[in-house]
Amino acid sequence: MSEQQPILVAAGGTGGHLFPAEALSKVLVARGLPVELMTDSRATKYGADFPARAIHVVASATPSEGSALRRLTALASLARGTLTARHLLQRIRPSVVIGFGGYPTVPPVLAAWSLGIPTILHEQNAVMGRANRFLAARVTAVAKGFERLDGIGAAIAAKTVLTGNPVRPSVLSAAAAPYVDAPDGRLHLLVTGGSQGARVFSDIVPQAFALLPEESRKRFAIVQQARPEDEARVREAYAGLGMEAEVKSFFTDLPARIAGADLVIGRAGASTVSELAVIGRPSILVPFPFALDQDQAANAAHLSATGAALVIKQKDFSADWLASRLVEMEADRAGLAAKAKAARAAGIPDAAEKLADLVLRIAARGTASQTEGG
Q1: What is the domain class of 7-167+349-373 according to CATH?
Q2: What is the pTM (predicted TM-score) of this model?
Q3: Nearest CA to 276 among 303, 248, 312?
Q4: Which of 143, 194, 263, 276 is 20 to 30 A from 372 (CA-CA)?
């Protein structure tokens, strides 16, 4: 592979896609390989941090939402983005293109396929998303974040490789912290709803604690993420119960917060599930119920099967149910430690390295083909 040929990473402008792309890119750069990023306009705010020597913005849209006119407009945007990506790829000449899912991945991967450039998809979730399903038959290889990957046929399964989900360096640092009882003897609870927060946790978790007697409440310390519009009322609810609680709309040090928790209540996005596993913390997971592909339910099932997580549907996630579980879990510290151990056993901390190895194998194979053809 020529030293001048970069590896092109394609990822949409959300943390769920950009974080694993960033983790891979840091490994590739550390190995002395140039990386360029192709993304949509939402990701421009990440430009200062993403380890790419160049960032290319191409048009994208989601064609499965809204009215017929909106879907047609989205398809036109994807077609325009694919033409733009094709021109860029002819100039950049990457050795391989790797897409991290979402519709912003479609133009660069489709353009690479049309030009005969080797391509890889990375699927973070335990069920393949719609954009990746559209592209999967065309790509050279599919890297999967979990052992089980639903929503694919035999032909796609034959070219899948388990790499795990690349996690940020801050997650790997947090993973060094062992799971031990806090010196104050309380159960430290982290409540997080993903990058956007989750109103259901703001509604249910304080209500659950309100159902407990004062002596039980004293055995907990809480860190909770709440949406900006919910932050004040959640903080006031805990203050009214006489409980210690740190409530914010966003935590910049979330991996460290996970490591400092004895129990995590959260959604089941691929990043959350992977970070819980790598850091090794027990959890109560409430999958987002309105996802088209039910990807969070599949992710949660993966962790539940290991014994690391308790999974509950949102419609069943009540204050009464949660209050009972909190009392049970606080009284069974050995059970929580066993769940933490099971979570860590399910983690793949070197996922970024494994994915980088796959990228280089596919790039080398493409170079060999070009040499033989030339």
Answers
A1: alpha beta
A2: 0.90
A3: 303
A4: 143
Range 171-346 classified under CATH 3.40.50.2000: yes
Buried b (16+ CB within 10 A) or exposed e, 52-68: beeebbbbbbbbeeeee
Domain residue ranges in the chain:
7-167+349-373, 171-346
Write the CB contacts of 369 (distance below 8 Å, at least 6 apart in sequence): none
The CA distance from 1 to 3, in Å, is: 6
Burial class (CB in 10 A: 0-12, 13-18, 19+), 25: buried
SS (H, E, C) the chain: CCCCCCEEEECCCCHHHHHHHHHHHHHHHHCCCCEEEEECHHHHHHCCCCCCCEEEECCCCCCCCCCHHHHHHHHHHHHHHHHHHHHHHHHHCCCEEEECCCHHHHHHHHHHHHHCCCEEEEECCCECCHHHHHHHCCCCEEEECCCCCECCCHHHHCCEEECCCCCCHHHHHHCCCCCCCCCCCCEEEEEECCCCCCHHHHHHHHHHHHCCCHHHHCCEEEEEECCHHHHHHHHHHHHHCCCCEEEECCCCCHHHHHHCCCEEEECCCHHHHHHHHHHCCCEEECCCCCCCCCHHHHHHHHHHHCCCEEECCHHHCCHHHHHHHHHHHHHCHHHHHHHHHHHHHHCCCCHHHHHHHHHHHHHHHHHHHHHHHC
Instruction: Give pLDDT tens digits for 142-184.
Output: 999 999 999 899 999 999 999 999 998 999 999 999 999 888 9
Matching fold, domains 7-167+349-373 and 171-346: yes
For 219: left if phi > 0, alpha if psi spans -120 to 50, otherwise beta; the answer is alpha
